[in-house]
Known about the structure:
Elements: E1 26-30, H1 38-47, E2 52-56, H2 62-72, E3 77-81, H3 86-95, E4 100-101, H4 107-114, E5 120-121, E6 123-124, H5 127-135, E7 140-143, H6 151-159, E8 166-169, H7 178-182, E9 190-192, H8 198-202, H9 206-217
Parallel strand pairs: 1-2, 1-9, 2-3, 4-5, 6-7, 7-8
Helix pairs in contact: 1-9
EC number: 4.1.2.14
Keywords: Carbohydrate metabolism, Lyase, Schiff base
Pathway: Carbohydrate acid metabolism; 2-dehydro-3-deoxy-D-gluconate degradation; D-glyceraldehyde 3-phosphate and pyruvate from 2-dehydro-3-deoxy-D-gluconate: step 2/2
Amino acid sequence: MLHARVQDAPMTSDSAPASVLDLAPVVPVVVVSDLDDAVPMARALVAGGLPAIEVTLRTPVALDAISAIAAEVPDAVVGAGTVISARNVSESVEAGARFLVSPGWTDTLLDAMRGSGVPFLPGVSTTSEVVALLERGVREMKFFPAEAAGGTAYLKSLGAPLPQARFCPTGGITPDSAPSYLALKNVGCVGGSWMLPADAVAAKDWARVESLAREAAGLL
């Protein structure tokens, strides 16, 4: 499966990517605790070849981090993760998020994400959830928590009966396991945070982050 670089990926009229799954083989899942880290961290990830960056809404500075990256790192495609409410949706898009990722979904959350004007990946972990989303016209999803929910064996088993569904598996994926996920026909990319080790972030060693991002970008 070929993955377009961010500059070649189809874009919607409002400059949101048409598909998050086709921007890069790995989407970094970022937890920003120090707002000062947001821009240099994003620059390092983009320089390493990972332009799609999911900033999780797990810290008080997450929305400000999204705004800073959107304003100061033009080559980044910054999105919001851990989106679990309609308020999360509106605040994330207002902050500059160009895509949305949720760990799960409800009808209310799905309606909010649909109305946001940006691409979204609702989270699933069961066949019934996948079928329910397909009924609603959604074909691109987050598979979470990937390793705990059955890993590559589970996703491979979904491929035959539900070939129209495509996934971004996230949760417990490592540089060693990522290639086996990326080899599946129904996987567009994977999410992970291994290119952002805690000691490198604490030391603000952005050169190391860039190097790890480059290795991740080469997994395809």
